[in-house]
Amino acid sequence: MDELGRKDHITFNHSSRVAKIAMFFAKELGLSKKERQMLEVGALLHDIGKIKIDGAILKKSGKLTKEEFDEVKKHPLYGFEILENWGISKVISQLALYHHERWDGNGYPYGLAGEEIPFLSRLLSLADTLEAMTGIRPYRKPFTWKEAYIEIDNNAGTQFDPQLVKEFLKCMEKKELLSIIPSL
Ligand SMILES: [Fe+2]
């Protein structure tokens, strides 16, 4: 994490905020302590593969070229390889591998669909997206909480597991969620 923090502080802050959101959600869903621990570590490390991607691409403020985006799309696989090398639990390395898969099969790296995507990865993708939309980035204005809520609702059944979206939106309606996210 330190290495990623030095190279890319946006990813570092992003990951800690994603972990907080994911933990809140997991608790509301009543997940076991073991699952929550796996999810927390996986959320903190899900973008670790970005350390293998050129910093100039990660920090680019304009639109990425197709080649650059193809490179960025390798970070789940890179992350999986790094975590496998560490000998870390498969549940955690799979969180890195599958966090950009989509319910409708249009995600990456494999285009898995529906329940082919592990449950915790489907959950992480909601936390990841909420942070990505509402967090501060140099290249765009953040979504308001309400805009993010509507966007996530609109993507139920396409990007996200529709059942999980229902539960996630209930979490977003709770004020505590906003207050526990570390500020940027
Ligand atoms: Fe990612």
From TrEMBL:
Positions of the HD domain: 11-133
Organism in which the protein naturally occurs: Ureibacillus thermophilus
Pfam families listed in its UniProt record: HD_5 (PF13487)
Organism classification: Bacteria, Bacillati, Bacillota, Bacilli, Bacillales
InterPro entries on file: HD/PDEase_dom, HD_domain, HD_GYP_dom, HDIG_dom
Protein's recorded name: HD-GYP domain-containing protein
Domain HD-GYP stretches: 1-184
Domain of life: Bacteria
